[in-house]
Design a protein that fits this description.
Structural class: mainly alpha
Strand content: under 5%
Order of helices and strands: HHHHHHHEEEHHHHHHH
Number of strands: 3
């Protein structure tokens, strides 16, 4: 027997709590899912439908309307994920007896190889940091943690001093879905973080920032957007023309580890991937590596070199 749905406000509040506490989603994921639900509710208002008791045909029509002007496969997939989440919640809480979104299919996300910086580009980027500026040591410490430990930008800005164990050379990282993992700190990252801690002690800190590792010049927690801006500015100053984001440093971290012989499962643990298949994208090699393998290993090329 199904439950009677509460008022709109109560149901939305219950959905938010379910996403946060029972599903353990990050605030960014929750915000995205709730935006998708708002689109569904708008559609239902326009067509005088109930977003709780919607049938498959109506959902298909909603998806068709949403996808008309959206070419991005990732955006389409995210909208579908938000809709699936809403009806899983309703089913789980016994507001409905059957999930009408169960057979909805979206685009299969094509796997694109991630953009990766070479070690030379990483070095140029680090060298572009103005260490004489007030934020110099902070920016260098952040870049070393993004590249040296493979942190996500959300993990970096959420990092707390109480999660950093310098004597043990580890950080306790709060990853996706509130899952925790231990990540080693490189000696280089530790050195630059030490310089930043000396600077940080002289900065005015807001009460909410006392335990936050990286703060802005006003003593408030650093935002994701600011880290994006810093990374892109450094790349521009270093003459790097690739499309780069903080996540590019995470990709570079994983790729460079793999190229230098690290086991894929260890990289999986360091990145906090649940599924090894997610990590396997780093097993790609570039065209130069392929050419080098042919020149060095193919018997025809070996014979030519022996003549």
């Amino acid at each position: 027997m199904t439950r009677a749905a509460n008022t709109d406000t109560e149901l939305l509040r219950e959905y938010h709590t379910w996403l946060r506490l029972e599903r353990g989603y990050s605030s960014n994921t929750i915000e995205g899912y709730e935006m998708d639900l708002d689109k569904l509710r708008t559609f239902c208002e326009e067509h005088q439908l109930d977003p709780v008791h919607l049938d498959f045909d109506a959902l298909q029509e909603f998806v068709f309307e949403q996808f008309k002007d959206i070419r991005s496969e990732a955006t389409q997939a995210r909208i579908l994920a938000g809709i699936h989440s809403w009806y899983r919640f309703l089913l789980y809480k016994n507001y409905i007896e059957q999930d009408p979104s169960e057979l909805l299919e979206g685009p299969r996300k094509s796997k694109h190889l991630p953009t990766v910086l070479s070690l030379e580009e990483i070095n140029r980027m680090m060298a572009a940091i103005d260490l004489s500026s007030n934020e110099g040591h902070r920016n260098r410490a952040m870049m070393e943690m993004l590249y040296g430990s493979g942190l996500r930008v959300s993990e970096l800005v959420g990092l707390r001093l109480s999660q950093i164990y310098l004597n043990e050379h580890y950080m306790l990282i709060q990853g996706k879905g509130s899952k925790q993992r231990l990540v080693p700190l490189s000696p280089v990252a530790e050195e630059w973080f030490g310089y930043w801690m000396q600077d940080r002690a002289t900065w005015p800190l807001k009460p909410e920032s006392k335990d936050i590792a990286f703060v802005n010049r006003y003593g408030r927690p650093l935002t994701r957007a600011m880290v994006f801006t810093i990374v892109r500015r450094l790349c521009a100053e270093a003459g790097i023309t690739k499309t780069v984001s903080p996540h590019t440093l995470r990709h570079s971290f994983a790729t460079h580890l793999l190229q230098n012989g690290a086991d894929l499962r260890i990289i999986q643990q360091l990145l906090g991937h649940e599924d090894l298949a997610t990590t396997e994208i780093y097993t790609h090699v570039d065209v130069q590596d392929l050419r080098k393998a042919i020149l060095q290993c193919h018997p025809a090329n070996k014979m030519k070199g022996e003549k």
